[in-house]
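Incident log, structure service

09:12 report received: a user says their structure output differs between two submissions of the same chain.
09:20 pulled the input from the user's history:
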Amino acid sequence: MSKNEFYTFLFFLAICVMVVLPASGIAEGDMIKNDSQPSSWAEETVNKAKNYNLTTPKTTSGYQGYITREEFCELVVKLYNATYFQPAEPASPNPFNDTANPEILKAYNLNIVNGYGGGRFAPDEKITREQLACMFYNYLTIGFEYQGNPPELGFEDRNEVSVWAEKAVKVMVDTDIIGGVGNNRLDPQGYATREQAIVLVVRFYEMVPKVNGVSQSEVPDNNPPEQTQANELEQRSKEEIITKWESLQPANFSKPFEKLPSVSAPYAAGKLTDGYLKYTLDTVNFIRYLAGLPADLTLDTSLNQKAQYAAVLEAAVG
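09:34 re-ran on a clean worker, output below:
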């Protein structure tokens, strides 16, 4: 699949701000002055993060300082809980001997972050650009198994990418989510700052449709006939896509619809909007991309919203 096709996936593009975020330009160990306020380029977004309740006490100061593994876990769990119907649960028993932070255990349980082995998580370690790429890649592919073959990196410092990070970094670069830092360099071992991580979280949050807290369990049972029909088509289409998915990767099959929204909750909440339909389309296209299918489905704007939603799911089987 070409870059232009994949460019349509909004929830991946939600973090493409990584391309334009300025490098911190701070050498390790340097003292950072006047970092009690965010940089001018990040100020508006940081304020949004506070309004969205996406910040943590540890990330509301030292904005130009390097973010730690613990701080990132707390941020990404905030993002997860704000965009998923089911809150994150901590891993049990605790696999680490150097932290008992429940937010770290939640991020670990979601497979967003990993330890270093031997019970070590290293919560106070700073995060490199390649690590940040891997963590967001893990977040965005919850429930998916990437099936593509991204091209080799063209940066002069490509050999500095760790072997374990190559796949995620290649995908992030190939889809233009992560760019270089100038002079044909990727700087995979450079550190990320708190304000950079906050900006990424906010950009992603703003691209995900919310249903004002209406969960599937709150949708009334007495659905009107047209909604029942749409729900039946939705379920049938999902089952057909799952069958296709299993035939493509039987050894690594995982539920591909953990991230795909249902029409029921937004319908009941009166939130079945064009933006929600576009998000559904992009999510289905992304599932098809991961499964090795053409990711070129489009909306038929001549149809009403419920019919568009049903048509997208029906066409998704391929």
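09:41 both user submissions now match this output. Likely a transient worker issue. Closing.
09:42 reviewer note: The longest helix spans residues 225-248. Confidence is low (pLDDT under 50) at residues 1-33, 209-223, 248-270.
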